[in-house]
């Protein structure tokens, strides 16, 4: 890493801020990060699923999400090789929702249709529960909390400075603002999209990969983490309200999880998370420049999939 004389202030310690800071530090810039002392805990990306699933996301997103996601999967694997798991994604649906599974298949690539026997080979605890599914073999996932903490530690090891919110912006060549929903109202193009999630503990079952349940009303995914923890998510509600989870959402989550496996009915609820994601009209992030201020925002549901590409764009601007 060759040092430059550029001093950069990065505001925000979520996935957009940390990936930008890390790439800039790798390029030789002197990095200061302004964020609350407990960061990255509490950031919207702290509550994410961490699915590196460009093919699956294509079902409800435009083609460039898939194209860029395929590239950034490699970045995560190179940057945090011990944390990325390459076990693919399994998409299933109850027999009554076979038409929804067909629609999902038609809107996405990178998969093959599998029968109940192969589902049982991939996930033995799903044996006999679904007779048809879609397997996206090249997709992966990462524990977002471990990823954020690992990036923060890498920056500490690279002599980045962490300061509290409100630190002076004087003396910096560029200020990179990755403060997410905090810019709602300042960025006239931005809106809030509320998301909710659960962490549950269940040692009765084990999954090796994210399981997506296709449903006409409540699409849901379950992402395995370590020590019997599963992340269940996530709603997308057009609202910037961050009040606690509603009873309706909680029932939807638990009913859908029970559909995947009845054992989730006995799971312990470890954590309930609510966050408001920043999004633009097309649900695709932006890098904007105004003088020496660079704004990277609007990650919507694609934070882990797209943030390395946004960080690359930031680095190109800053380093010229």
TrEMBL record:
The keyword Flavoprotein applies. GO terms for molecular function: D-amino-acid oxidase activity; FAD binding. It comes from the Bacteria. Its EC number is 1.4.3.3. Residues 8-316 form the FAD dependent oxidoreductase domain. Keywords: FAD, Flavoprotein, Oxidoreductase. The lineage of its organism: Bacteria, Pseudomonadati, Pseudomonadota, Alphaproteobacteria, Hyphomicrobiales. The keyword Flavoprotein applies. This is D-amino-acid oxidase. It is an enzyme of class 1 (oxidoreductase). Its cofactor is FAD. InterPro entries: DAO, FAD-dep_OxRdtase, FAD/NAD-bd_sf. It catalyses: a D-alpha-amino acid + O2 + H2O = a 2-oxocarboxylate + H2O2 + NH4(+). Belongs to the DAMOX/DASOX family. GO terms for biological process: D-amino acid metabolic process. Pfam families: DAO.
């Amino acid at each position: 890493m060759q040092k430059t004389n550029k001093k950069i202030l990065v505001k925000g310690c979520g996935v957009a801020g940390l990936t930008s800071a890390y790439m800039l530090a790798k390029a030789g810039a002197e990095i200061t990060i302004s964020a609350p002392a407990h960061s990255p805990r509490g950031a919207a990306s702290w509550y994410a699923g961490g699915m590196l699933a460009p093919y699956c996301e294509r079902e409800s997103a435009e083609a460039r999400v898939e194209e860029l996601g395929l590239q950034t999967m490699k970045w995560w694997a190179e940057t945090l090789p011990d944390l990325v798991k390459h076990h693919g994604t399994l998409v299933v649906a109850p027999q009554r929702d076979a038409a929804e599974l067909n629609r999902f298949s038609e809107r996405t690539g990178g998969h093959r249709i599998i029968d109940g026997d192969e589902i049982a080979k991939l996930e033995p605890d799903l044996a006999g529960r679904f007779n048809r599914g879609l397997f996206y073999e090249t997709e992966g996932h990462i524990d977002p909390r471990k990823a954020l903490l690992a990036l923060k530690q890498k920056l500490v090891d690279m002599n980045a400075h962490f300061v509290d919110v409100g630190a002076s912006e004087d003396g910096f060549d560029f200020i990179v603002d990755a403060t997410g929903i905090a810019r709602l109202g300042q960025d006239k193009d931005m809106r809030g999209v509320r998301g909710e999630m659960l962490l549950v503990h269940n040692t009765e079952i084990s999954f090796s990969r994210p399981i997506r349940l296709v449903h006409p009303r409540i699409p849901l995914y379950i992402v395995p983490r370590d020590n019997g923890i599963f992340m269940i998510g996530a709603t997308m509600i057009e609202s910037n309200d961050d009040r606690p989870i509603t009873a309706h959402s909680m029932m939807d989550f638990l009913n859908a999880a029970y559909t995947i496996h009845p054992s989730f009915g006995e799971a312990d609820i470890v954590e309930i998370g609510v966050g408001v994601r920043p999004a633009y009209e097309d649900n695709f992030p932006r890098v904007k420049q105004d003088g020496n201020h660079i704004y990277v925002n609007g990650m919507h549901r694609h934070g882990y999939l797209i943030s390395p590409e946004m960080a690359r764009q930031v680095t190109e601007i800053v380093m010229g």
